[in-house]
Specification:
Helix content: under 10%
Strand content: over 45%
Shape: globular
Structural class: mainly beta
Distance between the termini: 62 Å
Length: 309
């Protein structure tokens, strides 16, 4: 039937460790490494991409908080994390330091990314996931923070159109992807509208990435798939992932053509994990798209020098 989305390929596993809540996958082009986290375990993973797309571990960091998101830092070898209830600096040697705590008790950082100008945006959710308990915070280049949105449920994937004029933001609770007009100079959003709604029987939109042509690639939690949408919100292609809790995706590796997908075993027992060894792994699949590296956080030099000394 005309208008039906194309059926893409089936993703192939490229790790064997079952994460609790694998998330936050990003391509760090400073070191040509794939970054990802396990939110509930408080772990950060660095991986090399081998020929053929397999992953080889570079290092795993253990943090004392949940860790929802990660971004490279311009002019610094480390990374910015959304961890616990705020923003944290992680150094290559594993040392860490809290930058700011922004969200109230009984919440945690969930997902986020840097905008093209180098500000960092992080979404939070309530521990019990109740409607309206989520918010979005912005960390500016000078270290100041601001709450930008409230009243959300599970703020998730965030990304920007290639021209930088539109910011996309997932709210997994109501299963929608918002599109906002983005003011690059002020780091402000306006004119919000719902671009995509995912049917309840399909799953919930989760982490996402925007490719170089402006298509949105959205992991579908509970649906075992990644959906590819046009900038107008039209479903173009569906890829199958052999793990129902598909959580996040990024185009990565040489040429940025291969899609890596994190998955989870959230709230599962050890018995359930043993019964479904395909769950909680990282998957990969080849695409005809070209991605974009993770935009770095770009701290102001004077503030960053003072913070890191």
């Amino acid at each position: 039937m005309a208008g039906e989305p194309k059926q893409g390929g089936v993703a192939v596993a490229c790790t064997d460790e079952q994460t609790q809540l694998g998330e936050g996958v990003r391509w760090d082009d400073r070191r040509s490494e794939l970054l990802r986290v396990d939110i509930l375990a408080g772990r950060v993973y660095r991986d090399r991409v081998l020929d053929g797309g397999a992953l080889a571990s570079v290092r795993v960091y253990q943090l004392p908080w949940t860790v929802g998101m990660i971004a490279p830092i311009e002019g610094d070898g480390g990374w910015l994390l959304g961890a616990g209830r705020g923003f944290v600096y992680l150094a290559p040697d594993g040392a860490y330091r809290q930058i700011a705590e922004v969200s109230p008790a009984a919440t945690r950082m969930n997902d986020g990314a840097s905008d093209p100008q180098g500000r960092f945006w992080g979404g939070t959710l309530a521990d019990d996931h109740h409607a309206g308990g989520g918010a979005v915070y912005r960390l500016d280049q000078d270290g100041r923070t601001e709450q930008v949105l409230d009243g959300m449920t599970i703020p998730n994937g965030v990304g920007w159109s290639p021209d930088g004029r539109t910011m996309y933001l997932v709210d997994s609770g109501p299963r929608v992807v918002h599109a906002y007009a983005f003011d690059a100079e002020r780091g402000a959003i306006s004119a919000g509208r719902i671009l995509i709604t995912v049917a309840e029987d399909v799953g919930s939109p989760d982490g996402m990435t925007v490719d170089a042509d402006g298509d949105l690639w959205v992991a579908i939690y509970g649906g075992g798939q990644v959906q590819r949408y046009s900038p107008e919100g039209v479903l173009r292609e569906v890829f199958t992932v052999p793990a129902r809790q598909s959580t996040c995706c990024a185009l990565a590796g040489p040429g940025l053509h291969r899609l890596y997908v994190t998955t989870a075993t959230e709230n599962w027992t050890d018995e359930q994990r043993r019964a479904d060894p395909a769950a909680g792994l990282v998957y990969r699949l080849d695409t005809d798209a070209t991605g974009r590296p993770a935009a770095p956080f770009r701290p102001a030099s004077a503030w960053w020098a003072e913070f890191t000394r």
